[in-house]
Amino acid sequence: MTRILITRHGETVWNTVFRMQGRNNSPLTDKGISGAVDLGQRISAEGITIDHCLVSPMPRALHTAHFIRKHSGLSYSIDIEPLLMEMDLGSWEGLCYEEARQAYPEMFSNFKTKPDKYIPVDKGETFQDVYDRANELLGKIKERYSEGTVLLVSHMILVQGLLCIASGNDVSHLRDNEPIKQTTLYEIDL
């Protein structure tokens, strides 16, 4: 059986000011780096083994994955997996939550609490798109890894999608796991 451990990247500069990153990036803060280091040390202390690591290509996730591996004392490959990218937020990327809330009150409400009703204002993905990507990723993992532990390093909404699918829920429940804490391990079994 394949064991899947999932974590969200460490805190970033934009996280501290509630700025929506999506496919944009901002660097890890000292707290974000510390969280990744602590998670690596926890993995070591608890004797958790990791056989493979798949990571979003976004720098904040890549940096987190490397800090985790370095401080876990384990030796495993870190492979970039584009399916782990954060939701494409289109024109909302770079906006603070309050800016999006004021400019698009109904759509922002749907974004936060009704994922099945959210429609991107300009370009971007729907929550169904993210849910489908997460489902495709789980199928890919199932085909590629028949046993062992796979660590996924990703982003809040994609992690919510993975947990939603693992719980047997449809996309309307994707935001039920709110918030997804950074550098915290979540586990699902295939």
Question: What attributes characterize this protein structure?
Answer:
single chain, 190 residues, alpha/beta, Rossmann fold, 5-stranded mixed sheet, 7 helices, 5 strands
Q: In short, what is this structure?
A:
The chain is 42% helix and 13% strand. By secondary structure, the protein is of the alpha/beta class.
Overview of the molecule:
With 190 residues, this protein is α/β, with parallel strands linked by helices. It has a single domain (2-189), classed as Phosphoglycerate mutase-like (Rossmann fold), CATH 3.40.50.1240. It is 42% helix and 13% strand. The protein has 7 helices and 5 strands, in the order E-H-H-E-H-E-H-H-H-E-H-E. It has a 5-stranded mixed β-sheet with strand order 3-2-4-1-5. Helix 3 (59-72) links the parallel strand 2 and strand 3. Helix 2 (30-45) runs parallel beside helix 3.
